[in-house]
Automatic annotation (TrEMBL):
TM region positions: none
UniProt keyword Zinc-finger, yes or no: yes
Protein origin, superkingdom: Bacteria
Any GO molecular function: zinc ion binding
Mapped zinc finger ranges (dksA C4-type): 97-121
Entry-linked SUPFAM superfamilies: Glucocorticoid receptor-like (DNA-binding domain) (SSF57716)
Descriptive protein name: Zinc finger DksA/TraR C4-type domain-containing protein
Every Zinc finger DksA/TraR C4-type domain range: 92-127
Keywords for this protein: Metal-binding, Zinc, Zinc-finger
Presence of the UniProt keyword Zinc in the record: yes
Length: 130
């Protein structure tokens, strides 16, 4: 299955899609590196600044740490989605729904380039998960 058939594009467009996906993957990698660095700085500050902490201070620090970890997980998840999209593009399956194998509408891919399912299959998955 060629990506050209799936999303109705020419090779020039496929190259543009690849560049766009790679650029977003690289941005997410940079965001992740920055978030890891900020998380490490936060930990160093916590270690050096625990004298006189009461329960509220400890709770605030725990909440900040949890938020930082959540951000890291979110960035990693998004980066994995773009990595998967790049792999699908290389395999020639990008633009085809992983559920029904029908083409994913170009409009959906423009809004959500790492989409792996058509709207119908996505809705079915969400209903089952609820």
């Amino acid at each position: 299955m060629l990506v050209n058939e799936a999303v109705g594009t020419r090779q020039v467009d496929v190259d543009q899609i690849r560049l766009s996906l790679q650029a977003r993957y690289d941005e997410l990698s940079s965001e992740y590196d920055d978030a890891v660095e900020q998380s490490q700085v936060l930990r160093l500050v916590e270690v050096g600044d625990t004298a006189g902490d009461d329960q509220a201070d400890s709770g605030t620090k725990t909440a900040e740490r949890d938020t930082a970890q959540s951000l890291l997980r979110t960035i990693l998840d998004r980066r994995a989605q773009y990595e998967h999209a790049l792999n699908r593009l290389a395999e020639g399956t990008y633009g085809r729904c992983e559920g029904c194998t029908e083409p994913i509408p170009v409009e959906r891919l423009e809004i959500y380039p790492s989409a792996t399912t058509c709207v119908s299959c996505k809705q079915t998955r969400e209903r089952r998960a609820a």
